[in-house]
Structure formats: structure tokens, C-alpha cells
Write a structure and sequence with these properties.
Largest sheet: 3 strands, parallel
Shape: globular
Number of strands: 5
């Protein structure tokens, strides 16, 4: 059974995810000049994420989304123990948001250019001054411990707005300093 799972993962799931990423990435790049970014994300990123979860045989149950208020700014925090956080948030959170991600991801084929065109936020973690002027937005912004983190995260990057490279507690102050609510609350 383990061998079957391994073979299924590498010879079925990974190629399907790669093909789906290429297909929806191309569709995103075709639509983004003509439609608003939030609509393009709903038309491309949401089905992409749901299909990737489907291929992996991952079932998602969402609880508590009724507590999200439209028009309210949030900082969404995920532990990012696997890449599935991305699929779950995109596919099932049901709100328009912008990722805060390390700038190295901009160089990823397909994903990097799509994220840039959809208005996601790239942070250079080695330059704290460059990370300071995060754009003001009413959209939620998911963050990972590897990117600017907040709330209960224990790992913090060097480039959290308002922190020094040695500070590990500054991320917990970040959402309050930009007048954002954390989701989930600590």
C-alpha cells in the first residue's frame, strides 16, 4: 500500500498538479488584462486550488467563516507545515486576499508571474527597510512563519515591518500597528 501511495503521488498527483498549474496560470495571464484581479483569482486560483486538493484526495471542512466580516481587514495566519495551506486558503476561505510572500517566489515559473499580476505582496526578508512600506489594503493578507508573521507564530523573519533582524516578538505587534485583525485570533 505504501508503494502504491508513493507511485500514485509521483506519477499521478504531481503531473496533474503541474498540468493544472500551467493551465490555470495561462488562463490567469490571459484574463488579468481584461478583468479585475479579484475576479481573475476567483476564476483561476480557486478552481486550481480545489483541483489540486481533489487530486491529493484531501477533503476540506470549513468552520467559522461566518465570523469574517466583509470589508474588514484581516491578517490571516497559517502554520504552513505543508504546501496544502495555500490550496486550502485559496480554495475554501471564500474571501479576496493578497498573499505576503518572500520575494524569491517571484522567480517561480508560472506562479511567480501570476502572483505578481494578481497584486500579491513580495517581501525581501534580507532588507527590513524595503519591507516597511506594506501597501494599505482592505483585503486580508495571509502570512506564513517564513514571511512576515503575526499573532502566535514563534518563528519570525528578519524583515517584519518595525522589527530588527534579532527581534522575535515584533511580529505579534505587526497587525495591531497596521490596525488589522488577526484571523484566527490568538
Amino acid at each position: 500500500m505504501r508503494l502504491f501511495s508513493f507511485l500514485y503521488s509521483w506519477f499521478v498527483v504531481v503531473p496533474l498538479m503541474a498540468a493544472t498549474t500551467l493551465l490555470f496560470g495561462a488562463l490567469c495571464l490571459l484574463l488579468v488584462p481584461f478583468l479585475p484581479a479579484d475576479r481573475v483569482a476567483r476564476l483561476t486560483a480557486v478552481p486550481w486550488a480545489r483541483l489540486c486538493l481533489f487530486y491529493s484526495n484531501v477533503r476540506v471542512d470549513v468552520h467559522g467563516s461566518e465570523h469574517l466580516k466583509p470589508g474588514q481587514s484581516y491578517v490571516i495566519v497559517a502554520n504552513h507545515l505543508s504546501q496544502f495551506d495555500i490550496f486550502v486558503l485559496y480554495g475554501y476561505l471564500g474571501v479576496d486576499f493578497r498573499w505576503v510572500m518572500k520575494h524569491e517566489l517571484r522567480r517561480m515559473p508560472v506562479i511567480g508571474i501570476c502572483c505578481e499580476k494578481l497584486g500579491h505582496i513580495f517581501i525581501n526578508r534580507s532588507d527590513t527597510q524595503a519591507a516597511m512600506p506594506l501597501p494599505a489594503s482592505t483585503r486580508p493578507a495571509p502570512v506564513w512563519p517564513a514571511a512576515p508573521a503575526c499573532c502566535s507564530s514563534r518563528r519570525a523573519p528578519a524583515a517584519v515591518p518595525g522589527s530588527s533582524s534579532r527581534s522575535r516578538k515584533a511580529p505579534s505587534r505587526w497587525p495591531r500597528s497596521c490596525n488589522c485583525r488577526c484571523f484566527p485570533s490568538p
